[in-house]
Amino acid sequence: MSTKHELEGELSVREPKQYLVYLLNDDYTSMDFVIDVLMNIFHKNYQEAEQIMLDVHKKDRGICGVFTCEVAETKVMQVSKLSREQGFPLKATMEEA
Ligand code: TYC
Question: CA 61, CA 20: separation in Å to the nearest integer?
Fold first, then answer.
């Protein structure tokens, strides 16, 4: 029988670290654009996307998903590129889960 500590050690050898990706609120990005981002980049359906967008709008940030480091970095970059192209200041950030 392995101890909790041994199990955690084994898990950390096998499983890559996970990263939370957050969307940040701002006063200028349109609600429709945030919903588009959540559907297109984070693969949420319309209802989920609208709920997350409203959460971010009210609470200043919200979780869009949990990913491995490379995938999280790519999502953060995609949000910033698409937002810049559309003239919005929307930003995403990531932190270790
Ligand atoms: N606060 C924005 C507005 O009132 C909407 C918004 C929601 C912006 C979520 C960014 O991550 C965001 N138009």
Answer: 12
